Structures are given as structure tokens and as C-alpha cells.
Amino acid sequence: MYDSALTYLLLLISIAIGWTLGYRFANQTKKSSVPDWIPSIEYLLSDQNSRSIEKLLSLDQIDDDAIDLFFKLGRSLRDKGEIDRATQLHQKLFARPDLDRSVVQSLQLELALDYSSAGLLDRAEKLYRDLLESKGHIHEKASKHLIELLEEEGEWQEIIDLYGSKKLSGSQQLSYRVAQASCELAQKALSKKEFYDTQNLTRQALKIDPQCARAHVVNGDLAKGQGEHNEAIRSYLKAAEIDEQSIIRSLESLVECFKAVDDQPGLQKHLKHHYYGTGYVPVLAACVESLAQAGQADEAASTLLQELIQRPSNQGFLSLAELIIVHKTQLDKSQLLAVYDILRRIVASEPKYLCSQCGFKAKEPHWRCPSCKSWSTIKAFAYQPPVNQLDV
pTM, whole model, 2 decimals? Predict the structure, then answer.
């Protein structure tokens, strides 16, 4: 009995030893096909001869971790301005026949971004258009980058055509950009006095994006040019209802239209409302100027002073100086002119507009930020009072 048990035990030990040796041998064989080192992004970026990258690219098989590493490396090279190295990396990886379709599409997108950064816009555009046939996040990203590229080239009609053919992603953000393309064409048509086309294009913009404030501003400009001041006022106020910051684009025209219909009280009411909403000092200045022109100069100066106490700004003080000079108060003129000159120079150095997306400072109310290329992110530069530490 003991001999049988011993024999059975030895048999189990032999099986276990054989399995262990076989497992180790299999693992050693498998490990021989992958690198025995894991490079970091910093290491690869510092390797100017690209020998480490070539070593990785020459592997018979590349797993998901290696693919992720290559993508991070390519983006890092592109961000550093080494566009040629990034392009070569993506092209060599793209040439491999063993990649999944999703990886190939991601590589196409990276190559398109490389070409775009290098100024090879035709090549980038072709890749973006090819990716419009894909699905998911790649399709959405390709749509976004293609629209940005076409915006840079001023191909507004092409953007609208792509949207009409339903090849672009249907996201709200992209619809907003397509509506802006329609508004660009509408403004060009308006400048050529092509009124019918202007109206059709603004209607198209509002159909694409019902919240497109710019379309209402263009409609207001169209009505104003045709002497329809009440309709122009309605359009400008509708734009401000959708986006209060649109008042910075239509302020002068809005004031002219209210004056044309002789409605100073209505102008003052709306300007006060939009000043409290935006903090845009020229709106307040236009409001108090309307009061002064109506024979209420003292009330205008008092109103402006009260607002300056709440929201001090050099631009506001400049408006006060102009109001007092124009409507002749009892202040000493030489002192007032000195203050006016000082404030005028200070105000000239201040930004009037600020991009809420990237912080770009502008002197003109661009619809599209010249820096980050975002639409309607240029806002009025409003004074922010410092936080009282005692109240914290």
C-alpha cells in the first residue's frame, strides 16, 4: 500500500515539474519576440538618431501599449515643432500591414494634423475628407478639423455644401460653425447690395442654428440699409436677447436707428439693460449721451458718476470728461482737459475685447478669435473689482 502511494506521489511530482518547465520555456520563447526594455517619451524625444524608434518600428508585432506610445510620441514631436519627424513616424507606422482599421484611421488623422501644421493643406484636406466616411469620434474630429481648415481658406460655401450633403458630424458645435459660414457669405452679399441673397443666407444660418445671434445682426444691417429702422431695431435686440455680447457689434447702428425713429426713452431703457448685462462701457456712454442730448446733462453726469463708483474704469472716466466738456459744466476747463488727455492715453493702452476661450486681447470685435479660431468668444473687456480679503 505504501509503495502504491509513493509511486502515485512521485507521478504527481513529475507532472508538476514537467508543467513548470514547459510553462517557463513557453514564456521565454514568447518574451524573445518583444523588447526587453520599455522606453519613455522623454527618452525617445532625446534620441536624435531615432535608433530607438526604428527598433520599435521593426518589431514583428506591435501591441496596444506600443501603439499608444507612438501616438503620444508623434503628438509631442508636433507640439515641439518637429513636424518632419512626426510625419515620418506616422508614415512608417501607417505603412505596416498588421494594424487594425481603427488604428489606421487614427493614424490618418494624425498625418492630416502633421500636414496641416506643415502648411500642406491640400494633403490634410484630402485625408480629412477620406475620414468623413468613418464613424464615431474619428468622424467628429475629422469634421471639426476640416471645417477649421476650410475656414482658414475662406471656403465658406464648401462648408455649407458639406453640411448639406450630411457628410459632417451633426454636433451642435459644428452646426454653430456652419451657421457662421452662412453669415460670412451673407455679409459679403450685403456689401455687394445683393439683398435677396443676404436674406436667404441669414435664413439658412438660422435654420442650421436657431441661436445664431450674428444672423440677426446681419438682418439688422440689411434693414437699416433699406431705411427700415424699426425692423433693424427688432433684429439687433433679438441678437442681444440670444447673446448679450452681440451688442458690441451693433451698438452704433442701434443708436442710429433709435434716433431715426425718435425714441430716446426706448434707447435709454435698452442701453441701461444691456450695460448691466455686459459691463461694456461704451453702452453706458451712449446711454448718458442720449440723456444729455435730451436736455438732461446733469442727470446724465450723475448717472455716470454713480456707475463709476460701482464699476470704476478709465474708459468710463474718459466718457465723463467728454460729457462734461461737450455739455459745459462748471469744472475748470484746463484741469478737465489735463484729466481728459491723461485718461485718453490710459484708455488707449487698455484692451477693449478679450477672448473667453484663450485670453487673446483685441481692439476690434472679431466674430472669430484670431488666436484660437473660436467663434463668438470675443467678449467685452469688463472691469473685475478686486476681492476684499476681509470678506473672504
Answer: 0.75
